[in-house]
Amino acid sequence: MGTDGAARGRRARLSASRDFDAVYRKGRSFSDRNLVVYVFPCERGESGPRLGVSVSRKVGGAVERNRIKRVLREQFAAHRDLVPDSTDVVVIARRGLVEFLDEHGGAAVGERLAALLERGARAMADPAVPA
After folding, report:
1. Residues 6 or more apart whose Cβ sits within 8 Å of residue 18
2. Cβ proximity of 113 and 79 under 8 Å
3. What global pTM score does this model have?
């Protein structure tokens, strides 16, 4: 990834605490055994979706947490077309994700993330869809 890609990647991230708080308060959540995904449509124009990643110390040490964040960002980039533009997404890693990643690999994490993103996109399109 060149400098343009890196800059675009950083702009496409949630970093401010107030942005995370808004997604938690106003967004809808979808989860499975290893991930929780919050989606929130925002009114910031037609830029692509932004991603925030939260990995608690309970998940593992610094090396494991950074690895999980990297895998989640890569998998989100691969599946970002599932999420409408102008959407903020926060992904929270749960405790067993390190073991799941070791056992099944990044592609399996991507499949789980994609399924949750699809549920979120359907819910945004039709508010009657249950969480």
Report:
1. none
2. yes
3. 0.87
The answer as to whether 131 is a domain residue is no
Please spell the DSSP secondary structure of the chain, one letter per residue.
--HHHHHHHHHTB--SHHHHHHHHHHSEEEE-SSEEEEEEE--S-S---EEEEEE-TTT--HHHHHHHHHHHHHHHHHHGGGS-SSEEEEEEE-TTHHHHHHHH-HHHHHHHHHHHHHHHHHHHH-TTS--
Provide the domain count of the chain: 1
pLDDT (tens digit, 9 = 90+) per residue, 72-88? 999 999 999 999 888 99
Straight-line distance from the first to the last Cα atom of the chain, in angstroms, rounded to the nearest whole number: 36
* Residue 114 domain flag: yes
